[in-house]
Amino acid sequence: MALVKVRGKGQITLPAEIRERLGIEESDLLEARIEGRHVVLVPQVVVPKFGAVDLSSQGERMVDEALEDVGEGRVREYEDAEALIEDLHHETAGD
User: Fold this and answer.
1) What is the pLDDT at residue 52?
2) Residue 18: closest CA among 3, 31, 7
3) Residues 6+ positions from 17 with CB-CB distance below 8 Å
4) Which residues of 36-75 are buried (b: 16+ CB within 10 A; e: fewer)?
5) Nearest 5°: phi and psi at 56?
6) pTM
7) pLDDT score of 95
8) Distance, first Cα to last Cα, the chain
């Protein structure tokens, strides 16, 4: 069992063994949450936010068509990729 000491301003140092086992490096971000009477730290990956994308006129038409399909209910939802693939096989077998 590794013990850590809470220092000034609530700072703690994670033991090297824990950092190494989880691949935690300096400047990594950890989510801190409470579960019951425990503090749980979970390593996080931050995905950068991208700015606006310039689409070709064809790309804009494709996005407009897709949004129209969603608005008109011409879409299906699948539990997982396997269900989608199975549905596609059924569609092509019927052609």
Assistant:
1) 79
2) 3
3) 2
4) eeeeeeeeeeeeeeeeeeeeeeeeeeeeeeeeeeeeeeee
5) -70, 170
6) 0.47
7) 58
8) 63
Give which of 27, 6, 26, 30 is closest to 16, Cα–Cα: 26
User: What's the length of the chain?
Assistant: 95
Query: DSSP for the chain?
Result: -------GGG-----HHHHHHHT--TT-EEEEEEETTEEEEEEE-PPPPP---PPPHHHHHHHHHHHHHHHTT-----SSHHHHHHHHHHHHHT-
Per-residue pLDDT of the chain (95 residues; tens, 9 = 90+): 889 999 999 999 999 999 999 999 999 999 999 999 999 999 999 887 787 788 999 999 999 999 999 999 999 999 999 999 999 998 888 65
CA 74/CA 68 separation, integer angstroms? 8
pLDDT at site 15: 95
Query: Which bin fits 73, alpha (ψ -120 to 50), beta or left (φ > 0)?
Result: left
